[in-house]
Automatic annotation (TrEMBL):
Name listed for the protein in its UniProt record: Penicillin-binding protein 4
Principal location: membrane
Domain Glycosyl transferase family: 72-246
InterPro entries: Beta-lactam/transpept-like, Glyco_trans_51, Glycosyltr_51/Transpeptidase, Lysozyme-like_dom_sf, PBP_transglycosylase, PCN-bd_Tpept
Family matches, as SUPFAM superfamilies: beta-lactamase/transpeptidase-like (SSF56601), Lysozyme-like (SSF53955)
Family the entry assigns: In the N-terminal section; belongs to the glycosyltransferase 51 family.
Gene it is expressed from: pbpD
PANTHER family listed in its UniProt record: BINDING PROTEIN TRANSPEPTIDASE, PUTATIVE-RELATED, PENICILLIN-BINDING PROTEIN 1B
Species assigned in the record: Bacillus altitudinis
Subcellular location field: Cell membrane
Pfam families in the record: Transgly, Transpeptidase
GO MF: penicillin binding; peptidoglycan glycosyltransferase activity; serine-type D-Ala-D-Ala carboxypeptidase activity
Amino acid sequence: MARNPKKVSDLMFRAIIGWLLLAALIPLFVLTFYLSKEEAASVKPVNEVLDQKIKLEKVDFSQNSYMYDRDGSLISEIVSNDENRVFVKYDKIPDSVKELFLRSEDRNFYDHKGIDFMGVIRALAANVKNHGISQGASTITQQLSRNLYLSHERSFSRKFTELLYSYELERKFTKEEILESYLNTIYFSNGVYGVGSAANYYFDKPLSSLTLAQMAFISAIPNNPTLYDPLKQFKHTKKRQERLLGILEKDGVITKKQYKKAVKEKISLSLSEKKNLYPDYVTYANEEFTDLVSDQEGFTKRLKKAKTAGAKKAIQKELSEKVSALLQDGVKIYTALDPSLQQRAVYQLNAQLPYQGVEGGSAVINHQTHQIVALAGGKNYKKFDFNYAYQAQRQPGSAIKPLLDYGPYIDQTGATASSKISAGKFCSSGYCPQNYNHKTYGTVTLETAFKNSYNTPAIRMLDTVGVKKGFSYLEKFSFEHIVADDYRLPSALGGFTKGFSPLEITDAYTVFGNQGAYTRNHSITKVTDLNGKTLYKWKESPKQIYSQRTNETMRKLLASVVKSGTGKKANFNSPYIGGKTGTSNDYKDIWFVGLTDQYTMGVWVGRDRGTVESIYSSSPHLRIWKQTMQYAR
């Protein structure tokens, strides 16, 4: 298409006048402070004025954070502020990359002080010759000023401010620091910032492993990230790559042979999408990271002491800002995730619950190491969705009996598995609970009452030790939603105001795998900075909940449930298996929480609305538990 001569002439005139004005403003600005010796005593030096007017705060580049499984394999990349960046230090950036940008963007970088007046003149001459604006005159320092401190608005006032910032950058930082910052901030399209991330994203390699051709290819992008987007404009990117290689060859940076080889090399993109594995577990680990920071930095104590909702909100905001800052600086979060067990838990949850509207959640803990190793957050779970494994507060039914009824009763009375208790009718202050199918069984052993999940014996146990005493045991665990109204007899059968999550109740059951001692279990093993320095680590000490004698009795009772009680379908060949079933009123929730020698696993199945009575006989909760745990190693 033919150019309109008048438009080209007007455009050139405005551009030439604008650049000449900008070129003249800086020296005029500086001279203003040095003229008039009469007022020298009252006039501050120009650098002091600039220091007051232009605050160059320390730049902390947003970097990616990383999450790893128990073997140190990457499972999740956390990108802050939508800026996918892997920071590369100056001495780790290949010289070829530095030369590609210096010779194409700012040949006089090491000679000027942020503003290249000769570059302005050359750009004007080239634009006049080409009858248009074909070249700019921004130095690398000016581009960095825009990226860090200013907008990309096209106006003379913004341009003048950019020049002042560039002058200050050159005063405050070395050339190497400026070039390092520039190469780590420039945009490479597709949400990628910096040469390190560009190498990872487009070629799935670290920057140091790229060939000369690949380095030149990614170096072609920032000049115009839209025009040279490799995913949409590959041919344009390739042509600019060849021009850049030509500049290096012409300037003697590379030989003719190197140039020809690089130009002929086939560029095959190997896109590296951000790691985003195991969403059920990663969602929880992200939340636990906040809890860990809160605990270690004192926010948890402050929140407990806060007396008003406004004070709590302010502390929570401060905590959120702290967590965001850590993730932006870049951290490595190491977890106890067992990938094979995680996959198994998720698969079984989906496979055993084909029923519409029926949901589930499960948690697996290695009680020997006190680590959460797998979580299934719901069917077809997507990252950051509602997670049934740790967010669902459900009525535990009889799954609470070992913790609130039998454990305290045996601990306080010295009873054994063969001790006798009444399974007959029970009434207290108008509260008259029934056994399943409204049957009465007379006097039975604790083992019989436990494995068949009779209700009236459990009520009698809590009534005998006292509600307050029974709950004193429960308070030592990490249940977060027990309220004052729960301190009553119906809680003996799982009738709580809010209930518990699968992770909470599984966490508590680990006490039976640790000789009656409880240590809170976590998914995160440690958090380090990007250089490997440990920043945070959980500090937990065990609490003795039940005596060892009580614990051994409880293990015997739990084992009877899977051998000959309500949990027989969970049994398989193992040195030890024990557990407890649970069913809430109207079959809204069905549970099985149990343990082997090494692992404790809790499974919940239910509906948000309605009942699962129609599928109760098929025992999906027991099948999920068995099919997951029998493959645990």
